[in-house]
Amino acid sequence: MVYNRLGMVRAIMIPKLMCTQHPDSTVKVTVQEEVNEAIQSYTMYGCEEIMSDYEGKLTPYAQPKDIIMKAIELGIPIGDRLYITPRVPNPKLEDFDRVALTLEASLIANYYSYIHLGTQAVKWIILPMVETTDVVRLIQRLIIRKSKILCEEMNVPCPLMQLIPLIEDSSRLIHVHEYITGLYSILKEFNADLDNLRVFLGKSDSATKSGHIASALSLIYALHRISEIDKELDVNIKPIIGMGSPPFRGGINNPRLVDMEVEQYKGFSTVTIQSAVRYDVTYTDYQKVQSVLLNNIDGVPRRVDSEIIQLIENATLRYRTLVAKYIDIVNKYAMTIPTTRDRVSWREYGRSIILEDKMLSTPRAIIYTATWYVLGVPPLLLDADFIIEAYKKDVIDDIVKYIPYIRREWEYEVQFYVPHVAEKRLGKEIVSKINEAIDVMGIKHEPIELYSKLIELNPIEPYILSLGKIRGFLG
What we know:
Number of helices: 21
Number of domains: 2
CATH topology of the largest domain: TIM Barrel
Strand order of the largest sheet: 5-4-3-10-9-8-7-6
Shape: globular
CATH class of the largest domain: Alpha Beta
CATH superfamily of the largest domain: Malate synthase, domain 3
Number of strands: 12
């Protein structure tokens, strides 16, 4: 519970829209500009929650406090119904000192919001790339113990800061219950009064590792499973879905896709508003996205059958087998993609795809997605092998049952598919497979003429942002 200065309980409203600092726009935003961006996110874009992102990113540790002080200056009700939610580094992947300093930054931010407004600006902390419950336990215990020491010494209230595990892998999403029950038990160990639990389901990294179909299916399964766990634990579980503008990354921020994507991913309580939908489309288009999202908060998740697990495994294998053939080319072209946030290089902090006994290094999801577009192949089409196999085995209806708008997603993506460029940069084999899958889907290929002319230019580097502007997103 959270108390105001009079000692009265203040109800915590779960934010519906979370503005993030993703580098998926063609517009560069520096860390120095992110404080003002946060204010704009509250006032112009209607986000109740700002993700202050430290994962593989050069964010100043004072950023949460600076956002609070700026909000106070402008009379914005920070901590009352508007929040800051830091995404901290995962100690399994980054240096522990960065984790500790980010937690300290969150505590200090809360101290300032309390002494100035009597509110708690940081109610939640996101832990990304969660794979084991032990790291969830470690960080949640650190949060509670550090909070207690600071609050006792500074003589301020000590409301709970709750960890949000961010699950970003298809194989982990289907075991979402383990992370939720693990977090629940930790909080109960500290006698936390639980009204709500939040869990974050990520589409982008899951798609990078397993492809669109597997990641979409696993996320749909996780949302269904959460609705069951909610009843088992007798606590309100509020899922966040993290998705961007391209359909490979969920498509839920895309003005042309949002109406159908909210149907495919029913059951979310919060959704991310990433950079591209704020900077690369018109404000009118943004308002459409915002309206559709708000009208679909807390829908009833779609039911799934156990057969979905086998589909996820088969789709993952087919996707990884295809991608493995081209990973060196992808990594080469990834060096040409400009970064529009102050993140560390993906070569220092990237991702990996495991295929049998091989571990393939890849860029992070947005650079990875943008790179495939530059190669002439929208990454959604990398499920071509699985589509062909499903058609031959007469099980393609099983895919459509769970992803009913997959054909429309492919129709959207093929406008950015440029076969002669893909053949030149990747070879004939992948083009042949994609063309066959397009035929299986019964789609007419009609590329955008200007886009096709720009993408074939060499060198391509000067035109990458222009191509992104045409799409409405970098990656």
